[in-house]
Every structure is written in structure tokens, then in C-alpha cells.
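hiii so my PI (J.) wants the whole complex modelled not just the main chain, which honestly fair. so below is everything: two entries, each one labled with what it is. i double checked the lines twice but i was tired so who knows lol
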Amino acid sequence: MSEAKAMSDKTRKIILGVLWALVAGFAVFAIQILFWGLGYTDMNNVFTWGNWIIGDLGLVALGGGAFFTGFFLYIFRVDKLEPIINSTVLIGFMCYLFTFVFLLFDLGQPLRCWFGFAYPNWGDGLLPTSMLTEVFFCLSLYFCILFVELIPIALTNKWAEKFPVLKAIGHYMHKLMWIMAAAGTFLSFFHQGSLGGGMWDVLYGKAVWFREHHQLFFIAIIAATAGGTSFMTLCPFVAGKVMNKEVMPKETYWTLTKISGVMFVIYTTVRIWDVYTMTTKFVPSFDRNYLDLWGGYYGIWLLVLEFLLLLSPVIFLNIKKFRETEKFMAIGIVSGVLAIVVSKISVLLHGFSAPNFPWRKFAAYNPTIQEWFVTLGVFALMILIYIAFVKWFKLFPHLEHSEEDH
Amino acid sequence: MTRRWGMAIDLDKCNGCGQCSIACSQENNMPIFKDDSDVPKRVAFLDLMKVTNDRDAEYPNVNVAYIPKMCQQCEGNDPNNPVPPCVSVCPAVATDVGDDGVVSQIWSRCIGCRYCQVACPYEARVFNWWKPKYEESFKKSLNPDVSIASRGTVVKCTFCSHLWKQERDKAVAKGELDINAVTYTPACVATCPTNAMVFGDLNDPKSEISRLSKDKRAFRLVHTIDDKSPEEQKKLKATRNYPSPKVYYLSSKQWVKDMMKFK
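here's the output for the full assembly
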């Protein structure tokens, strides 16, 4: 780690103040939205979804790093990932928790959210008919798994360590975590695909989203494994910078970013193929032109930006020399995370803006203050919870080892 | 024989008076808000769309047509196994397609996720963004046969299927037990002053709607696959579903038909 100065007390207070202000705003506007409805948003009958679904898609894809890291650690026994697993589980847990929060806000009838379980759209076979039904079930089950995975971490604080029973429970749960990791991988595989891709590619009436054979479903899974692993590296990396401490061994970062780099190569390849099939096959089946679908405020630059951002993880995370240089690794993971976020933004903004009738213009969406505060408040809350876990729990076991060594 | 309800709208006869929209709103208890000029958030099943050949043209070169647009009651490729784009996506089975081909929606089952709205290529579904309000005397004119939707639910045109139920109830009272014995007329069709709208059973080859659906002037809203040869259509339909609406539009003007294609 470089010898950067630790953040001053004043800066720390300002940042914490801003985060709490956002959380306070979230609380106020959450009440307004839940009690007085979605009329206070800029969503409408054309631009049906907005900020919060972008948040959902982004959080779930980036939180997907938790299942993929767990999969490598517990199933493939890549022990170098051990120091980062606590952090990934916490981030995964928060990403899923707040995905639920966003989804709840997006429901016109939040009190009827249990209808998704009580009256699921299963159809005749074993597979659900509605992709949202799959999201309901897989997301909830995987959230339960993340909750169980979080228990051993929650039992690592000083208070819990006073009780030998709790310590023993935490220890043995940790030993059995591979079962959870296996189940989590299975479930994650489905909902990553359904929320990120399957939900969109089944919409056969819409030229912007439709693809055959659940093409986007599988691409979304790859996106989550690529972007998620980068995000899981980014969070402790930023924490280490802020604390000016080595929170993770360098080898851990290198191992995870190596996995991420390979996944980004696969993602970029399939994404190019996706754009190619959209251009030559799917969009023409609607008698429309792929490039014409991009327009208005959210033009082709979103697609160009996504591919430009994909360049750095593909290069920097796959060449050992760059990967093991902190600056390039940081650029690689930040660009990787941004590329996945941009791809989700583009699914939403570009998807809804494209006109359904030839005589209509491209639609625009300008989120209201309520939508911004709910969105940013959620992110602020996630950062605050992460800070709390760093402070009171053993989120970075390596940190304690290195401090003991000193 | 089961019914397969469909509609034909003659755009050559439609003068854009908007009676259909008003009758629909009255029949289906649509709320009225202070600012209903906020079109994208308005709650109305029937939207009267104005299309013009050229926005900047001046008289006499400018042509205008009004397209009444409600739920197009899509059925997918196969009328015997209807798969409208909006039905399969609902996570709570709040929307379904009946034997009569009408896509229904149960307001009280809807959780308001709006996924069906996302799936609909015709923007035919509307969401109650605000709590529906009915001012003073307006409450007295509410239709008891159509339930009032809550805030935060998706609602849509059902071809006034409650009127069919009324007709069936009347027939049952007279001893007629065949569910398909009677026909009916939705509010928008009944009120049209120029007889531009025709409603009926597409399964009945003798019905006027069957005849009109095969008319040379007939086309379906932004459904360009209809213009292709039968062989090409068969090939395309083998790869994926097409919405295949049951609402037909008729126009003798080529520019109106040309408007249905994305340039």
C-alpha cells in the first residue's frame, strides 16, 4: 500500500455528515412514497421503471460477486480468497437487502408484496412462467443464505466472543459454509440471469429487449461474475485507502482480480456477439433498425461508453504486470464496475426511451428529488453499515493479523 | 363454438370526436384528476392518438388521422393457445387471457410492479399513479359493475367484458344456459356517432368483424409482419411470437398505413 496520509478528522466528519443527511432524506421521502404513492416520481405509463430498477439491477449484479467469490473459496478451495470472504458476504447481503428495499418502493401496492409468493405464476411445468416469480423466490432464498453466512461474521465482535457457545457456533457454521456456498451459487445463477437478463429478453413485443433462447439471461450471469468480483475487490480496496492500512493481502486482490479479468474477457466477447445478433437478427425481426433504436437523450454513446470501459479490465486485469501494479488494478476494477453499471443503465434508460409507435419521439426521464434521495440514501446506508462492520466486527481478519505482527 | 372477440375501427369514418374515450371512462369508472393534460400519467383505457403525415406541412398538404387505441387484446401466433406479451410476465397472476381471447386484469390481485406495462408494445396498460378520486356528484354516476381500482395498481381495457356478463345473466334468466349464446357491444362501440367502430366474434365467419378483418383496407397497429408473404410470415413465426392483436384498423389512405412502419 502507498504511504498516503490517513483521512483527516474534518474530512471524515464531513463525509459522515453527508451520508447521514442522505439517510435522513431517504427516511423522509420514503414515508412520502410509501404513504402517498408513486405519483411523486417521474415514472409514467411510458417510462414505467426508473432509478430504483437501475439500482436493483446494479446492486444484484455487483452483489453477485459474493456468490462467485464464495464459490471459488469453498468449492474450488482457492484459500487466498479467505481474507476477503467476510467483506464479500457483507456486501452481498447488503446488496440483496437493499434490492428488496428498492423493489418494495417500486411496487404500487407494497403491502401486497407477499402475493408474489402466495399466487406465483408457475405455469404447468417446474419452471416459473414469469421471470419476476423466479426473482421473488430465488432472491428471497439466496438472501436467507446470505443471512446465514453473515451470522459467523456477526459473531466475531468483542461482545459475542465473551460467550464460548456463540464462538463455537460461529466456528462450526464457518466450517459448514461450503454447503451454503453451493446452494447460493445454484440460486444466484438463476436470479442473476432472470433479473438482469431473462426478465428483459422474454418481452417479445419490445424490439429493444427481445432476444431468443434467453440470450440475455446467460449474459447477465457472466456480467455479475465479472463486475461482482471487481466490486468485491473495490470495496476493501477503498476501505484500505481511507483507513491507510493494509486490510487485505495483495495476493488476495490479485487472485480475485485475475478471476474478474478472465470473466471480463468472456463478458466482452459475449456482449459483442449480443450486439451482433441484435443488429442482424432480433431487431430486424421487428422491421426496425438496431441503430435507430438508440436516440434521444440516451443515444449510442451509452453502448460506446460500455465498451470503452470494458477495455481497461480486459487489459489491466489480465496482464500480470498491470494487475499487480496498484494504480492499474484500481483503474481496471473501477472501469469494470462502471461498465456493468452502464450496461444496466442502458437497459433501462435506452429501453424505455425508444418509441413504441413510429410517430412518437424518444421519451425522457428526469428522476424527482424523492427518487434521488431514496436511491442515494440507500447507497449512503450501505456505506455506513460497511463502516460499522469495519469498526465493530472482524471484517478484515488480515488487518488484525498484521496489527498483531506489529 | 367459443367466442373470439375482436374489434375493427374504420379510420376513414373516425372524425376524432373522442366520444369513445369519454364513454369508456364513464363505463369503467376512470378517475379524473386536476391536471389530466399530464398524458403519460393519465388513467384512461382508450387513448385517442393523433397522427399526421407531416408535422410541419400546411393546408392543404397536411393530413391528419385519429387512431383510437385501447388494449389490442393480443393473442400471439396461435389463436388456440393465446399468449399475449403481458400475461406470462405477471408475477402474481393478476392478468390472464380467457377462452374468449380477452385479456383480463384483476385490480385487487395486482401488486403494482408494472412489469406488464413494460411488456406491452402498445402502451395500452395504465397505472394508478395517484389515488383515484371521484368528486362530489361524480360518485353517484359510478358504474357498480366495474370495481374501483386502488392507487398503485395497473388497469386496462377488457372490451367491457362486464357487459357480456350482463347479457349472459339476462339470457340465463330466460333459460338460455349456453355461455356463448349472446353477443354484446362495448361502451366505445355503442357510442361512436359515425359507426366507425365494429365489435364482434372473429370465430364467426359470418360476422361483420370477420369480414372487416380480411378487408383490403385492414391493418393492425405497428404489426409489420402482416405485410409479408404467407411463407415469410410462417418462417418468422417459427422463430418467435408476434403480438397479433385482435383490433383491426381500416384506412384507404396509404400514408396512414405507411405510418405503421418505422422508417
